[in-house]
Amino acid sequence: MHATNGNGGASKYITLVSKDGFEFVVLREASLCSDYIRGMLRNNMTEARTGRCELQDINGVILEKVVEYFHYWYKFKDREDVPDMEIPVENCLELVVAADYLGMDSKPH
Amino acid sequence: MEVDEPEPTLPPLPVPDELPAFTTYIPGERKRSRGYLAPPPPSPGMSSSSDPAYFSSDDDPALDNYLQGRRKRRYVGSWFDQVPASSDSVMGDDADPGPSSNPRHKRHLKRQPDSGVWVGQDAATDTDGDIDLPPLAARFPLPYPVVKRIPKLGSEEQRAQSVVLACVDDGREDVDLSQMGLASISDSVLEPLAGLTPIPVVEKDVPFVPRDPILKLFLGNNQLSRFPSVLLDFQHLTVLSIRNNRLTELPPTIAKLKNLTALNIANNRLRHLPGELIDLMESAIGLHTLNIHPNPFFQPKHRQHLLDNEVLQHIYECRTRGRGVDGFLVDQDRGDNFELFTTVLRARTPVQFSNSAGHVLSKFIFPDMAQRLTDSSKQLETENLGSMAIPQTVQQHLESSGESKRSFRPRGPSSLLATAMRVAARSKDAESLPDLLRTDGCPSHLADPLERAVVVNKMGGQHCTVCKRETLCPVTEWIEFREIRRTTVDKKKTAGDGYTASIKHMHISAREDEAWVPFVRRGCSWACTPNVLDPSDKSPLVNGNF
User: Are B165 and B192 in contact (CB under 8 A)?
Assistant: First the structure.
């Protein structure tokens, strides 16, 4: 629903670009897990039209993990038995910061 | 004949600083010889043995040369004051090895396994400069392993340690560490108790059977401010007394100590108890003594009995905790007549909703644990059990995700922030991570919640009350005021399979202000909240699991 609201046939996918130039193509609905990206896509911002979000503060390794979480969340959001997602220890602190930045905090899903 | 490679020679013997005054005694010689200025000939006399050893030059590198004959050299004495006994030795003890008499050229040293003679001597100065040795390899090619410094034990702790070790040595099961002035107790002091093996009773005609220890630990009258987390692994702990200390919080994992028969936490600084203690009361079959007063517990502002209806009480327990009020009746392990501690819910505070980063969204805020308690801050407001104040943002989320008020099973994965924090808190150097977040340019508001998660993880973690998932950063918290009662059950079998049970309740404290005890509850998502009771609901067994 969100994916097409006010965007007249916008694509189902959006592109996330990391600080070091890596691009990730993500399902639009999965990325709505993040309040920050939801805000970027909802209003009449450039990102909403182009479907291309540049995240200047997040590097590729971390963004890859974030994107993995998007799809993990999208897959399991209506399930009760959820497996844990693997997060490598060396990235956890940066992921904490990135998750806070992207507004991926507690929500009842 | 092949010219012999100049053989590595021994360095000349060190000339003793003080020369023997007038005489030199040489064992094996009958006569005493006079020696004034001339140094005494190096001789087997330098060896401590009076019986000089003979050895041959069998480790000579020329030994492998089988074609040409070889004269064995014989030496007398120990190797370090070698004197060639045969005439052809190039080794000399010449006091003045002139450059012409023994022309030395640069030698190429070859490795000679076990030649022994190259053990460095202080006086070996003759050719040291000439020897081309390969440069020393770096001693530690790898970076130094990070060695954690083991904190030194204080004198009180050392005394405690000696008591513990004495108990382990003797197989004594009563470990008395009370009145030792302990301000903290490190895990390493108590750890040996895990290996305590008691001495079994030896009687005639009784087979020798090793038994499990019945560990009793007395830590009363100290200044402990933190519960020693290593205790949570002692499955055989039966008596635990931490009275008269400075504890401010009990870890939720105390429910693991299922063999407890007596727990004394009186006279501490506890403001609430973990809700898991209720589980312990139900699961620790032998628990017969429970001393929790006095403690500066939170009290409700209003003391009305908001939930006198047993049926509603039961619904609340079933939906919030997944267990009925009378669940203990079906426990088969307890037999027919037993006593246990039960609780009954009397009141509940509003729920504090927050996010994983610790930002509180609800009007109700948990009192700051660090702040000193006054009489007014000790009192918490309560909420009607038939309603629940939910902040608007939370309400919107609940509605958008189609969550009904009645659901008690949260769905979906935990948030990325909570997941990453859990990994961080479990990592090896978790304790240094919060400080990293406090440095410049980092979101420092995340440091405090992370620090809290690290502490919680160290104490064994905690679980969501409602869905039992592990959560280090709970997002809903509330306090339930409960009455603790000692319940006596007397079951009588009736004809057929059924039984009648007479149940008597007795309050554990006669004082009015001690009647209601606060238990803290935690949820892992905004859907993990206490059940909101509807007085018109008359279907107690919706859950069907009891």
Answer: yes
Could you tell me if B401 lies within 8 Å of chain A, comparing CB atoms? yes
CB B274 within 8 A of CB B247: no
**Which residues from chain A sit within 8 angstroms of residue B419, using beta carbons?**
69, 84-85, 87
CB contacts, 8 Å: B356 with chain A: 105-106
**Distant-in-sequence, close-in-space partners of B157: CB < 8 Å, separation ≥ 6:** B182, B184, B185, B186, B189
What would the pLDDT profile of B487-508 be if each residue is shown by its tens digit? 888 877 777 667 777 778 888 7
CA–CA distance, B116 with A103 (Å, rounded to integer):
72
Q: What is the ipTM of this complex?
A: 0.86
Tokens of A80: 């009760």
Q: Does residue B527 sit at the A interface (CB-CB below 8 Å)?
A: yes
Q: Which residues contact A35 (CB under 8 A, 6 or more apart)?
A: A102, A103, A104, A105
Residues of A in contact with B355 (CB under 8 A): 105-106
Give the C-alpha distances (Å, rounded to integers) separating B377 from A90, B292, B299, B307, B348.
42, 21, 9, 25, 16
Taking only the tens place, the pLDDT of each residue in B436-471 is 887 767 777 888 888 888 888 888 888 888 777 888
Contact A96 B450 (CB under 8 A): yes
The answer to whether the peptide bond before residue A108 is cis (omega within 30 degrees of 0) is no
Measure the CA–CA gap between B341 and B385, rounded to whole angstroms: 24
CB pairs under 8 A, 24+ apart, for B95-103? B95/B39, B97/B12, B97/B126
Q: Name the DSSP class of B193.
A: G
Contact (CB<8Å) A106/B415: yes
